[in-house]
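Feature request disguised as a bug report, sorry. It would help if multi-protein outputs had a clear separator. Right now it looks like this:
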Amino acid sequence: MKRHPIAGDCVIAAVLACMELLTVISMPGGVQPVAFFLVGVALLGPLVVRRRDPLLSAYLILAAGFAQLLTHSAAALNQTDARIRVADIALGISLYTVVAYVGRRQGALYVLWLAVGVTIWAIWRLDMPAGVLPTLVIVVIFAFCWVLGEFMGARRAYHSEVERRLDLLETERDQQARIAVGQERARIARELHDVVAHAVSVIVVQADGAAYAVRSQPEMAERALNTISATGREALTELRRLLGVLRSDDTESDRAPQPGAQSISDLAERVRAIGVPVRLDLAGELDDLPAGVGLGIYRIVQEALTNTIKHAGPGATAAVQVTRVGDRVELDITDRGPGSSRKGLTAVGGNGLIGMRERANVFGGTLQAGPHTEGGWRVRAVLPVTTA
């Protein structure tokens, strides 16, 4: 349990008072009893609040010291002398407190007042040259209090700085944790959007086609239902993989491989099976791309083709060109169809476009999406390739 500072100061004052009472067997000479006890209370009492209000306590004790100069004179023979008393240690404690808790500037001013008092005391109350030794002892005591105050002040400043830096580190840690959580939520949202939006778009288109052809063209309806089944199973597999990653604490656990640039051909085949002709052109070394870049390329192409299915309308066609040129990969996805104008959809709106742009920005790339000058809709992205 931490003790309150006032309690410790009360103990110091009480100890000094007991020491003074023990050293004074009889009433000292050269001072009136009332003045002796009043000065003693004035010297020791302010110690109780020396850490709460250092300057007030120090100057009250200093005033009591000057009062001692005026009331405590030399004693007669065979009497205890009150010119130096145990309670005078309060002056040194006050000097230490001012230096340690307030600073050198106020400590130097306090030393100046102490020097004035000691000088008056040595000249007025002591007999020279016999008073040289007591004066030197007092000066050494005050010098020791100054050095001790400097040491404790530096130590307090050091601990304060350490605590401040620890608070700053805790704040930065909390901020970094919030940023990391936000980034992870955005990443999960992108993955869920890519998986669910693509699968649902395919399922809706195929379900509409199956409903239209179920009586007149049963074989086409059966193919559409098979496509719905395969697309649903693939979406469930990716969702299970994603949920497994979120639920598992074992980073080394076995996981389904992430799709990459090499999976774009399968993606194009699935879109063709829906009824959207896709012309695919892959050029350059795409097999050795980093896993993150490959996944980003796949998701951008997937989202662009999903938008083609959703917005381009019946009879739409798409062209996908993925080219690796040196240390970058260029993507160019265009489509043409009756709905290619994308009315109501801008280049800065829509979760799919935002997700594609975020994926490109993650790798330091760029992405542009909007109406094509030759008609239709175009998505163009450039992703730099970072190799180990």
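(second protein starts here, but nothing in the output says so)
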Amino acid sequence: MKKRILLKGLIGVLSMSLLAACGGGSDDPASDPADNSFDSTLDGLQPYVSTSPYANILNDCVSAETTDEVCLLSDLPLLIEEGDSITVDDVMDRLLVSHEWMGVRFRQWLEIMPNDLLQLFSAVTTVVIDAEVRPSFYYPATSTIYLDAAYFWLTVEEKSVISTEEDYRSEFSNDLAFISFSRHVLDSEYAWFNYSLTDNEERGLADTYLNAARLLLHELLHANDFFPPSESPYLSQQQTIYDAYLALEDERISTQLVADMPLESEVLADLAQVMFFGETATLQQQLLTAAEVGEELESDNANDTYAYSNAREDAAMLFQEAMMKYLFDVDRDIAYIDVPVGDDLICDDYIVAWGQRGRIGDSEVKTRAQFVVEEVYLDQDFSLFFQDLAYPSDLQINANWCEALVLP
């Protein structure tokens, strides 16, 4: 029997702009999981740890159809209630999977992750990994993260069960004259490579390590945004997670970010509605060049176009880029490229019109990023890290995307 997750039952209750479905900007653009393009039924979810103290209620708690059916925090509390330090076992006790191997791989991945990342799970109740989830997303009404299994497979057998459907938002930008590109870079090389779901190539755990870290940093920031560390330890356990979510609206990190350091570009805010929510592009938007869009971003204080989709994604993009640099010394490139003409296009055809590496080092951008990071890690001092961040480097203009990997 299909279990209906809460998305459809709450479409009329939750504002669409508050839902967080993503994976981190242009690498995996985001939209609203309550959109009709998202299949709100997931078959065959099972607790990975059958002896978990929550095994009997995990499925019901993430599958509630109405707000009245959402579990009480006393029955399924945020992980922060497990103690001062979250362990791998704590997280695994909250895991639901569609296939057994997903739990095996997820545990292997958690065991090699930095502790700073592991502690971010304190703001979630449940983790779901499913072969049909795409894109990954966070759902605040149950404080659950839903992860695309494509981030975790290692063998051909494992990837054979994963959906090969494209992200339904992939064509939203088709009427625009520019393309937004991004990548993560380590020592002037790609930090990771993407693998096909349809060939016979396998991979090792190290091949999934950094890309999965990026994904989790983004999604777990959403959880810590909606349930901030300054407030979550003091929640009444006699309320539902949905009631707690409503009560914390004014305390969200992203709410404070927008109030104190708002973004200003109306051009990019309007473009984000086209690129990430499927609104029809106006003629003026269709005529924008890649260079013009890049200059617009550079004149404001965001690190990605995706930040303009809503305040939650603004905070998540800042946190993701800052923490990938802090934890792994991985830089992020962003570029805008005019749409090339022709068929069978290769990297040589994608010419950079504007691009930067490490935009998080821009003085105003890093001020905003530092605010977000320090609201998550209340007891840690990041001042030296942000002080030492290098100013963004310009990518090679008029070079192709692959050549631009090497800075001028």
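Even a blank line would do. Unrelated, but nice: The two ends are 58 Å apart (CA to CA).
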